[in-house]
Write a structure and sequence with these properties.
Layout lengths: L3 E7 L7 H9 L4 E7 L4 H10 L11 H9 L7 E5 L5 H10 L3 E4 L7 H14 L3 E3 L7 H11 L6 E9 L12 H4 L4 H4 L4 H17 L3 E9 L10 E8 L4 E7 L8 E8 L2 E6 L5 E6 L5 E4 L7 H5 L11 H21 L13 H19 L5 E2 L7
Parallel strand pairs: 1-2, 1-3, 3-4, 4-5, 6-9
Antiparallel strand pairs: 6-10, 7-8, 7-14, 8-9, 10-11, 11-12, 12-13
Helix pairs in contact: 1-11, 4-5, 5-12, 6-9, 9-12
The structure holds 1,4-dihydronicotinamide adenine dinucleotide.
Length: 385
């Protein structure tokens, strides 16, 4: 089977997220890294691309050059990943969709709800895939949670409790460091800092595993470091389309926490608990029975979990492999679209532009509710009301 050609914008040398994408896309032999504009400094981007094995004429200096160059080729890339800073996602993603490329955009997909709606429309009108990298939804046991909930193992879902806490911006002495300060500056970061950066992963996961959308919310947002204009901690109560009650905590001042994304779901017949730092175990507590620990890779899991595991049980699989699962889904979606056939349902789980838009609406709702002392507000984008 011929590999699909894949390109990348952003993710240059020393970037945080670039290597995880290259590992993820390359892992299963489904994509070939063929073109890129990796850096905001054209020459550095060209050089690094070639160092990673790109042909000189496809290691571009900037994304517009790449769009023109790839559009003109017979063997153009079929998927492009946008892993640049947030404020550039909208312009780049829209331009590539309109030129007929499938896109995987980093989160947050856009800076405003209106831009998010434009991306959803651009994907629909051009009949292109626009995925958003809620990469943690690719973990095998997160997929299994979703499958257990969908097949009714927990009964009706009552409560979901999600969190994403870290302590990397807790040092008040470091608050003025330019690498930290911009994140809490509305002119650069938009209406929200910590919720837009991390909270949306937890909120997306709540929707992903329950299969329900967030409808309304009430937020308590605070800047624990007083010089910050935007929040470094938020507690959000929310309600979901199927009646599930939601609780979410996100923080960047939680000293000692590293990448504390976790989720608990409680239904009428049992509870589930999973955490990103220990992704190979899922805690399952059926009502009135003993705690069971489900291991990634064990026998008799769901097809969704089986499809997204590679290494035998007992060996840790981590974050780049979760990203690889998003790429595996996308390869199946692109091939199904090219061949005019139905997509394998166990693969049809990658986060969509609609999810990116719903997150943006939630970000705006959190900022609005936080400013109004926790007043309950509609969390849905106007397009989906
Ligand atoms: P970073 O600052 O570490 O790296 C950004 C890279 O993009 C750099 O190589 C820079 O030179 C390049 N770049 C900037 N402007 C560009 C342009 N106009 N054209 C081409 N390249 C350009 O940023 P980081 O942390 O890697 O974040 C990038 C994006 O990924 C952000 O949107 C962030 O929210 C998201 N992210 C997502 C994560 C996830 O779990 N899904 C985790 C971490 C980041």
């Amino acid at each position: 089977m011929k590999k699909l050609q894949w390109g990348m914008i952003g993710g240059g040398e020393g970037s945080q997220i670039g290597p995880a994408h290259r590992l993820g896309a390359g892992l299963d032999g489904l994509f070939e890294f063929s073109a890129a504009a990796l850096d905001h400094r054209p020459e550095a981007g060209r050089q690094y691309g070639q160092q990673l094995g790109l042909a000189a004429d496809r290691s571009y200096g900037d994304w517009r050059e790449m769009l023109a160059g790839e559009s003109a080729r017979e063997d153009r890339i079929q998927l492009v990943t946008v892993a640049t800073p947030n404020s550039t996602h909208f312009e780049i993603t829209k331009a590539f969709l309109e030129a007929g490329f499938h896109v995987l955009c980093e989160k947050p997909m856009t800076m405003t709800v209106d831009e998010g709606e434009q991306i959803v429309r651009a994907a629909e009108q051009n009949q292109r895939i626009c995925a958003v990298n809620y990469g943690y939804s690719g973990y095998s046991l997160v997929r299994h949670m979703r499958a257990m909930i969908a097949r009714g193992d927990l009964g009706r879902i009552r409560l979901v409790n999600a969190e994403f806490a870290h302590g990397h911006h807790a040092d008040a002495a470091d608050a003025d460091n330019p690498r930290v300060r911009w994140r809490y500056d509305p002119a650069q970061a938009g209406v929200s800092a910590q919720f837009a950066d991390c909270g949306i992963h937890a909120l997306h996961m709540a929707s992903f595993v329950t299969g329900e959308e967030v409808t309304r919310l009430s937020a308590d947002t605070v800047s624990c470091i007083a010089s910050r204009e935007l929040e470094d901690d938020a507690m959000v109560n929310f309600r979901m389309s199927g009646g599930t009650v939601g609780r979410l905590w996100t923080s960047s001042i939680a000293i000692g926490r590293q990448h504390g994304l976790g989720i608990q779901v409680f239904g009428e017949k049992g509870g589930l608990r999973w955490s990103q730092e220990h992704p190979n175990q899922l805690y399952w507590m059926p009502l009135n029975e003993r705690l069971q620990i489900i291991e990634r890779g064990e026998a008799n899991l769901s097809p969704e979990a089986d499809r997204t595991t590679r290494v035998t049980i007992g060996h840790a699989e981590g974050m780049p492999l979760a990203f690889a699962n998003i790429y595996k889904d996308l390869a199946e979606a692109i091939r199904a679209s090219n061949e005019g056939r139905a997509i394998d349902p166990a693969a049809d789980l990658y986060p969509r532009a609609a999810d990116g838009l719903r997150s943006m609406a939630a970000v705006v709702a959190v900022a609005e509710s936080g400013a109004a002392e926790g007043q309950w507000v509609d969390a849905r984008p106007p397009m989906f009301r």
